[in-house]
Amino acid sequence: MTDRIILHVDLDAFFASVEQRINPTLRGKAIAVSGGGKRTVVVTSSYEARARGVKTGMTIHEARRHCPELIFIIGNNNKYIDSSVKIITILEDFTPLVEVFSIDEAFLDITACQRLFGSPEIIARLIKRRIKGELGLTCSIGIAPNKLLAKLASGMEKPEGLVMIRPEEIENLLDRLPVEKLCGIGDKLAKHLSLLGIRSAGDLGRFPEGTLTKRFGVIGHTLHLMGLGIDENPVVPYQREPEAKSVGHSTTLERDISSEHQIASVLWRLSEMVGRRMRRERFSGRTIALTVRYEDFFTLTKRRTLVRYIEGSQEIFEGAWGIFQSIVHRKAVRLLGVSVTNLSHCQQLLLFEEESKKLRITRAMDRINDRWGEFTVTWAGLLDRSRGKGIISPSWRPEENQILTG
Question: Of 226, 273, 305, 334, which sits 20 to 30 A from 253 (CA to CA)?
Fold first, then answer.
């Protein structure tokens, strides 16, 4: 088998860079992109702000304490989606094997592309040149024999980095690498590994696999391979990604609430968002899940399975509201989430003309909202809601129709 050549392309301070590209007066200044709510946090910041200590996840007050002149920008999802789709289009000019990892990251398998474009370093520089020339954005690129190491390499020399990890360099690199630098090992897991005397990736690779499996279960084998720098996962283009196992949305409220009327309004809005996604992706589902987080951060999730598959927003809401009313709530609510699992591509068989008419109306509304934006038209029950001010999750990945029409 031919040794693989994998690239990881990671846009530099993506949301902030898009804002600075669109508004030249922001260039060279410390800016932070956030949501529009009262409880918003820093989603990302420019490198000028990072140099002053501003970090992702900080509250507005914390960020201003580090950088009083910080400029806050309320994120605009449409700008970032548009740029992300254009970047994917550029990457697909080099190889069809492009896996969209998040809104600002992608893996490329260029193993078979070198005769067309040249060495891996040449391909990486061509990609960087096109993204900067066509979109005015910079990126860092890691090159390695697998996805794990390519992602590691892309973060080693930010911004505008280009790092290649060759097979003969892997062992020495892992010996010096703190274990938490490996993708997938967070602070909590790193602390558990530290208790076993594992502090570097090399330590992890040398540690007995059986002990890891006994301590961490099935992920013990994966951890062992990661410590050796082994990752056999292929680059999976979006066309071949597995189908979703659930469809859901959640929101952190601007203030803690106890009013049933307000809670019902939020659940109605979330149910409409879930239903619209299900209909767009041609899913029906049987299990509705409600997540509630209270003011003291205690969180619970409760599920209810229906006798038939549904895709309608009102049915999703009725299920979620029924679950909510079945719970004794002793504290104010901080976060609400609605999701549907147990998915299928089966279509509803509607016995009554009224049901069929309502579904036709719903799908017509979906088409309008797809074209003009979320909640351009909606049901009367949502008239008292405020427009969504959230910012897209960094883990967002564009859908197939967005990529194809971008």
Answer: 305
- What is the reported pLDDT for 366? 64
CATH pick for 169-227 out of 2.40.50.140, 1.20.1270.50, 1.10.150.20, 3.40.50.1580: 1.10.150.20
User: 204 and 227 in contact (C-beta within 8 Å)?
Assistant: yes
- State how far the alpha carbon of 250 is from the alpha carbons of 245, 274, 290, 391, in Å: 16, 10, 9, 12
Would you say residue 238 has pLDDT above 80?
no
pTM: 0.69
Q: Which CATH number fits domain 1-164: 3.40.50.11740, 3.30.70.270, 3.30.450.20, 1.10.10.10?
A: 3.30.70.270
Domain 243-393 is in which class?
alpha beta
- Note whether 7 and 47 are within 8 A (CB): no
Res 350 pLDDT > 50: no
Rounded to an integer, the average pLDDT of 33-40 is 78
What pLDDT score was predicted for residue 303? 93
**Is the predicted pLDDT of residue 405 greater than 70, yes or no?**
no
Domain boundaries, the chain: 1-164, 169-227, 243-393
- Enumerate the active-site residues: 105
